[in-house]
Amino acid sequence: MTSFRIDRFRFDRANLEAWAGTDPKHLNWPVVYALDGPNHVYVGESSRGASRLRQHLDSKEKAALRAARVVVDPTFNKSVCLDLESFLIQMFAGDGTFSVLNKNIGVSDRDYYRRDDYQATFDAIFEELREAGLFTRTMPEIKNSDLFKLSPFKELTEDQAGAVEVIVEGLFEDLAAGTSSRIVIQGAPGTGKTVVAIYLMKLLSDIQNSSEDEVVEGDERLSDFFQPGYCELLQGFRVGLVVPQQSLRRSIERVFSKTPGLHRSQVLSPFQVGGRAEGFDLLIVDEAHRLNQRAAQAAGPLNRMFADINKALFGEDDVQLTQVDWIMRKSRHQIFLVDGEQSVRPADLAPHTVRALVESARAEERHYVLRSQMRVKADDDYVAYIRSVLDGTVTERREFGEYDLRLIDDAGELQDEIRKREKEAGLARMVAGFAWPWKTKNDPEGFDIELDGVKLRWNSTDVDWVSSKTSPDEVGSIHTIQGYDLNYAGVIIGRDLRFDPELGRPVFDRKQYFDPRGTTNNRALGIVYTDDDILQFVRNIYGVLLTRGMLGTYVYVCDEPLRAYLRRWL
């Protein structure tokens, strides 16, 4: 039985004072409140609700907010209120009806007594607010949306929060000293590199735009950066977020367009950075391993553009120059987020370039590692285990508790299971390696993949495919899914990866690989890619696909010997 109530009143001084006098808990008790106007919402918590709301009435930023809703519960304490505040901020940001006015001040994921029991209360509070019109979508719909998953309003893990705190401290020290800096953050799939990148963008914007009349909690992890002096160091400070993958870039642009203090124009491709006349004070590069070296680009005009940018920035078209060089030339400070084992094409940065970035940052003590697994609901060793299975170095079978990891022998069963999970939880998709040509690109009525009598099509769009209406009935390629979360992934391992009994490990079959740029030799650099070279990319592709599902991964394998090999480990 719930014990909370939600008090609603017009947000002005007369109504606030009337509310303050009706219950002692309004003066001295932990409460959570939401202030909303036509297009904006602000969520806060305080042990002295009436006093805090009076302060908000004096804030210019909140002058347009017209309604107050205060959650009062006799069982609430400070920890519960901080958790509920964070929960509601994330829900509002994910719903997208209102722009959220809150600042990022470092709320990290925290545990407390009976936290699981309070979740039922949070759900009931959400539903009451939804019935009042503050939310337009259900909680599962919100949690499955890109607006929620890519929102800057996230509870950070301890290693994420620690990295953000140290990075921002170092950045302000560098700004005060007038020195440049280069930082590298490493993390396996699911450790939240993109979350950190977006969080940093929002945090720096909030500090830059902070003012003296704002009320900022003094006990949050990053609240010290909102004290006098920091804002001044960021005046005129130009920040950009570089995202190499087109699909992920478009999704982040949409999030930025709905977030106060951020703008979609801040989300850039490497070519946009290289081609701009003006420079940046800071460039944050997500999925930096997907930056390109000089190689055959995905579209013909980009090859000429690559050369033109080299000439404009360096005076010559030196083929050894990479997009990393563009980033460094166009900015004074850089933050690179990398995972070298997610490079999936020959045009991606060479392994030695990624290693050089990491080693340079480590030597400067500007290297940070994210270890906590946020995506897959298995333990933190799941990613390493999957990679060891793919490269043939696995020695011991592992189990992963309640995580739903299955090897499925029939393609029809795979399709049925994914459809069931889509109805139950949403965000269940089939994905595959590039082991079939993309016929439906020119024939949308045809099919690309036929397995066990099941006919399937590749993704009909390569931008924001995961959220498209047709995606539950299609198969996504690596280029549509890298950087995204799913609840359940149905992974089809094609015959581009097969098992060699003599070698005792998976190998690459070039004749069964159809990525148009997946095997292209690098004429500019004089590199001819062997099957073992491409094998590494293919293993990385399947490593990415097999680590998309948060709740489960179902695997169908085309090559019979490979299926038998995987059966020993899955």
Automatic annotation (TrEMBL):
SMART domains (alphabetical): AAA, DEXDc
- Domain GIY-YIG stretches: 28-103
Extract the coiled-coil ranges from the record.
none
Task: Tell me which Pfam families the record gives.
Answer: SLFN-g3_helicase
Q: What is this protein called?
A: GIY-YIG domain-containing protein
Organism expressing this protein natively: Nocardioides phosphati
